């Protein structure tokens, strides 16, 4: 029998990945994952089988890397799971599709706590299950830093995919979901002097909740181009402009509600909330263009117009801040 | 004009990932990738669109991590690309499906040479294009070590997926492709004293070439269970035994051709080639069970029988070597 004065109680030594075999770790992980109604065969075999009733599947992949995309000091395993799922499901929605399933590969250090990995499964489930998305398979490996790679699948239900290239002069530019909240939340965390619990934008940074149903809604409403805002409104609008061969004019007066929602946080940090709204990514809202002669679908609000020409202008001026890039110093 | 006595020639400083923007790196990478006839929409948008004519898609994912699954000293970027693609395509084939497409996420250090990344694209293409498999999308990120995560898709063409659980006593156990060659090749590299160019098993380790067409062939021939041998024959046979609730009896006399093909290399290293054949993974051959009353498809050769009971026996004895595990010390 252990002597509590001499032996540490077992509870005080967190169980790590190195304490478990791959089989044992999978036995903790897999049962926490949702199945999803499109799943014909889930985890446990060489591959999964997902139903694709209309004959084509939407496919996208993203990877989150520790200390590049998240810090363990700020994000729990569940936060990372939610975020990894949400940003991929947003990419599916941005094609006009309904997400159906995802697969995950996880690289993790041997000293990672099992609780973190279990939290990751719970986060994947929390972001997927409400949308009837199954987590159908994946792979685990050891490695020095955590890397979570998610591939997500979607069903177009008979509509054509909405690419970035269909915007035409005269179209309305509109957005669904929030802008700048994730960037504001990151700024609060980076600053370190504010009480994060008093700024709910931090939650948007840690656990983005993209407007997934707005994607198919936009497709059915005739959206001519669409993407999810992952690198900032101006930069992502520029992608539609380039792909479509036209210009996008954005108006800060139409973005005023987004800016106003961030003014308290911005004032406490001495920063300009307009920067967050124009250049902050990772809320994963949907930016789309629609023919002007049709009503916007209910999830979308107008923020500008497509014009002849090229590039993005805000209140008639070409912005200088252009989002960020992974590899540039 | 540069002074060659004072300035190093530009050619002598390899271009690294840090020298390029993400956009520029993608512009080098993406054009090298095959499209594949199932690709309706390839890289460049939020997501790809892949045709799935028969209403269900086979999906699998695996990750290769530097210094866990490969060493840059041994494997070129092209080798890693070939291997990452091949092992995922083998998982698709092991369901009885024809691979159609894959997506890739790549984590890489900023000081990685661009030539390595371009080689990776060429390796993915070399493994995919001959099978009309498209590389349809993915994601790049910086990170300390290289991690290549591939998700592959396949088309069942109307046959039912072949899982691990359908083996029945009386079935024939058969294999397509090689056994033990990859393990022998790794042993040559680990030993370091032999001339690797004189042992073509090294090529199987670096660039496995699984018998992909044997998967659909097995499904059409009525295979009752199937998987690809990634962790060793005995261990993977054990997976079929567990999933199917029966035993697998393997015979070394039936494996003699596989063993004989490795004897020269084994003798030079003073090792037993039987170990490689029984426990070596990563040739990614296909292990399947078939009803005894039907002819085996031409790619398969008989190596044993399914029996009542449990577990795997070799020549009537339960083997002790059981393959390897990622996390156990």
Keywords:
homodimer; 329 residues; alpha+beta; 60s Ribosomal Protein L30, Chain: A; Phosphoribosyl-aminoimidazole Synthetase, Chain A, domain 2; 12 strands; 23% strand; disordered C terminus; Thiamine-monophosphate kinase (chains A, B); thiamine biosynthesis (chains A, B); EC 2.7.4.16 (chains A, B); magnesium ion binding (chains A, B); thiamine-phosphate kinase activity (chains A, B)
Shape of chain A: globular
Mean pLDDT of chain A: 92
Order of helical and strand elements of chain A = HEEEHEHEEEHHHEHEHHHEEE
Supply the CATH architecture of the largest domain in chain A. Alpha-Beta Complex
Rg for CA atoms of chain A? 21 Å
- Biggest β-sheet: strands ordered side by side in the sheet of chain A: 8-10-7-11-9-12
Instruction: Give the helix/strand class of chain A.
Output: alpha+beta
Low-pLDDT segments, ≥5 res of chain A: 322-329
CATH C-level label of the largest domain in chain A: Alpha Beta
Strand content of chain A: 15-25%
> How would you sum up the major sheet of chain A?
6 strands, mixed
The rounded distance between the terminal residues' Cα atoms of chain A is 57 Å
Count of domain modules of chain A: 2
Give me the number of helical elements of chain A.
Answer: 10
The greatest interface here is: A-B, 73 and 73 residues
Protein name (chains A, B): Thiamine-monophosphate kinase
GO molecular function (chains A, B): ATP binding; magnesium ion binding; thiamine-phosphate kinase activity
Binding site for Mg(2+) 1 (chains A, B): 62, 139
Domain PurM-like C-terminal (chains A, B): 168-260
């Amino acid at each position: 029998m252990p002597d509590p004065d001499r032996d540490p109680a077992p509870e005080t030594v967190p169980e790590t990945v190195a304490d478990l075999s791959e089989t044992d770790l999978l036995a903790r992980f897999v049962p926490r994952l949702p199945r999803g109604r499109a799943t014909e065969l889930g985890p446990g075999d060489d591959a999964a089988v997902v139903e694709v009733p209309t004959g084509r599947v939407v496919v996208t992949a993203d990877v989150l890397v520790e200390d590049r995309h998240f810090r363990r000091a700020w994000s729990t395993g569940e936060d990372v799971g939610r975020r990894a799922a949400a940003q991929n499901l947003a990419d599916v929605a941005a094609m006009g599709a309904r997400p159906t399933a995802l697969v995950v590969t996880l690289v993790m250090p041997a000293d990672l706590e099992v609780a973190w990995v279990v939290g990751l499964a719970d986060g994947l489930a929390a972001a997927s299950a409400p949308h009837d998305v199954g987590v159908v398979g994946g792979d685990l490996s050891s490695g020095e830093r955590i890397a979570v790679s998610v591939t997500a699948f979607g069903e177009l239900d008979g509509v054509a995919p909405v690419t970035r290239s269909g915007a035409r002069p005269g179209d309305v530019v509109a957005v669904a979901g929030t802008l700048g909240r994730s960037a504001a939340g990151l700024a609060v965390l980076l600053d370190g002097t504010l009480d994060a619990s008093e700024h709910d934008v931090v939650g948007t940074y840690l656990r983005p909740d993209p407007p997934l149903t707005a994607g198919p809604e936009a497709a059915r409403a005739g959206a001519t181009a669409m993407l999810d805002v992952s690198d900032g409104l101006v930069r992502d609008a520029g992608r539609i402009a380039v792909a479509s061969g036209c210009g996008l004019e954005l108006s800060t007066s139409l973005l005023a509600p987004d800016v106003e929602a961030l003014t308290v946080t911005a004032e406490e940090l001495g920063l300009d909330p307009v920067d967050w709204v124009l250049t902050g990514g990772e809320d994963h809202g949907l930016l789309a263009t629609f023919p002007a002669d049709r009503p916007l679908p209910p999830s979308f609000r107008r923020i500008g117009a497509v014009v002849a020409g090229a590039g993005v202008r805000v209140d008639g001026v070409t912005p200088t801040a252009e989002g960020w890039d992974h590899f540039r110093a």
